[in-house]
Amino acid sequence: MLTGEPFIPQNITVHLGFPDSDAPNVTLPFPDYIKNVTSSEIFPTWSEVAIRSNIYVIVTFALNRIYTEWYRSR
User: Positive or negative CA dihedral for 30, 36, 41, 44?
Assistant: First the structure.
């Protein structure tokens, strides 16, 4: 049930491979996932605004995939 309040999960489960592969699923804290993805996608030479913008995109993309259950249907 939607309450109008944003909800950020404490944990996220990530599949470590292609969608149909027999790879393990790993559950980790959501903030750690965001930090890991961010450190893999951006460069420290970017401006602070660019870094913040990319972090917002990463969080939004991950939350969209969680709430639309994108990966559950795969």
Answer: positive
